[in-house]
Amino acid sequence: MNNKILLTVKVPMIEKKYDIKIPISKNIGVAQELLIETINELSEGHYPKKKDAVIMLCDGTVLDKDSIVKDCGLKNGDTIIIV
Predict the structure, then answer these.
(1) What domains, with CATH codes, occur in the chain?
(2) pTM exceeds 0.85 for this model
(3) Sequence-separated (6 or more) residues with CB below 8 Å from residue 83
């Protein structure tokens, strides 16, 4: 069984998007920290390491930081937004 999913992460602040794998067994808060670190590195520091970032679906639904990734209905190829 695969323990990660590949998501497209849109980052409006820097007008970029990235394909990033995140672990499905972690909660959204932990995944968010991993995403922020990864985006900061991929953008060569243009995306700041923010503690108050929010992850949402394309329809505007904000994902609860305490929810487990696999329980949020996310699947390979989905797009999320981090603001």
Answers:
(1) 4-82 (3.10.20.90)
(2) yes
(3) 12, 13, 53, 54, 56
